[in-house]
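cache lookup: miss for this entity combination. No prior model stored, computing from scratch. Input as submitted by user K.M.:
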Amino acid sequence: METIGVIGLGNMGKPMARRLMQAGYTVVVHSRSREPVEEVVDLGAAEAPTPHDLALNANVIITSLPDSRAVELVCLEQNGIREGARQNTVLIDTSTIDPETSRKIASVLGQRGVEMLDAPVSGGQAGAIAGTLSIMVGGPEAAFNRVLPILKHLGRTITHMGPAGTGLMTKLANQIIVAANYVAIAEGLALGVKAGLDPANLVQALEGELAQSRCLELKGDRITSGNYEPTGRLTLHIKDLYYALQTARVLGVPLPMTSIVYQCFEAANAAGRGNWDHSAVVTLFEDLAGVKIRKL
Amino acid sequence: METIGVIGLGNMGKPMARRLMQAGYTVVVHSRSREPVEEVVDLGAAEAPTPHDLALNANVIITSLPDSRAVELVCLEQNGIREGARQNTVLIDTSTIDPETSRKIASVLGQRGVEMLDAPVSGGQAGAIAGTLSIMVGGPEAAFNRVLPILKHLGRTITHMGPAGTGLMTKLANQIIVAANYVAIAEGLALGVKAGLDPANLVQALEGELAQSRCLELKGDRITSGNYEPTGRLTLHIKDLYYALQTARVLGVPLPMTSIVYQCFEAANAAGRGNWDHSAVVTLFEDLAGVKIRKL
């Protein structure tokens, strides 16, 4: 069996590492935070002091990091994966970062014989714990096929989208649509509730209409009961929208709606809801329109 | 059995009249266009020369008209329903008009003993033919209960939302969310396809993600195959967005995203796609981004 290195033991990385250990893999970890490292070391993982050391000991490396800069640092800079990586290593980057940076890293690592897959996930921490994530993968098909048995311990829907960057592009398209859905739900509910409709009745009616969406089904009741416990954090979604707009700038694609949606998310963050669920953009419209969608 | 008057025999009104005749009701019709009138008269309907005459002969009246002005005209002006209506008549207005106008008409007709229900429908012409529309109803509960057996011949999901105007408010919230979904799908696909993804693969992946929506499921394949045969016409959706923005102005609800979405729909109309399906807003982004999402 492959030895798997896991770099980044946050909300997503830690449960992924645990699932792989439970599946019988030898796991070596590296993370900036001590607490999760100690937790998985107690369960039998080895610890590597740097990404470089981790790369010396693993032929499959999974990264789960907050942003492009963090992935670049871990992959390409001092004590990074590039320095230590063995031939035929596959790097599975599950972070949502900008596709340009990802392709650049893939190209540099490729010169060292490392094949990189961009494999952003969705499904939140609950999905990572249950192994039911959906994983959109870009990169060489042979590398994808080689690590598919590993990915199957982490996710339920695993789709190879094409060459490097296509997993991330799919994720960004998803994030554009999801964010727009939440703002649309916010505007629809703000208007309806200000006109006197009961929020819960309105949500229920909309679920039976063309307005139906997974966002509405999963978050409608939470929105009307004011439960913004995060399954996906607002600040992380802002980062994804920022990457989408950045990528659109590079490719020359006008995104007028995403641009407004992004600003609404920024406003919700500025209002102090950055650590709430991404659907908390709805609360911004409660303030803007002077209505209470949440039952108190 | 009640005698039912049907005013407006367009894409929606004509199949509704036919279904009611098939269900055994005596139906009297009025419409500006000769052709559909002759068609239903051949099937056994009576014709009324004016809404006034129709109101003299029916205790339930269904209107299916293109906009607020048309409903106002038929209800309140010369030779209109108000002049002819009998006591205890129920008017079911299935048109999507602005809620302010609807409430005004309801109030004026109320003084003549006519109870009005705002009962906008969704499900398109196919739904009207099959009797599977969904109908969102506002207005007095007693009137709703009285005509429910009639509505059941027309629709499958029939929901009483509250007092006058609440059916329309629900419909407008629906239209806000649906329009936003199509623009979001357009932006997501334009970005992904310009980055090199295959449109059909991208649609399929998104359907399995949080981006899932009824819009994507019903129209995804049509969008990637370039089939914009209308189930709901773009120009009609523009009218609905306009009413939503007008209502938001009256209620003091900021709708920044709907405002941009509306402009995108106007742009698609200006580009000559007004009679295409409302999802044809996607083709605007093909032009804007210089990508082909449609397979040729």
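stored under new cache key. Chain B has 14 helices and nine strands.
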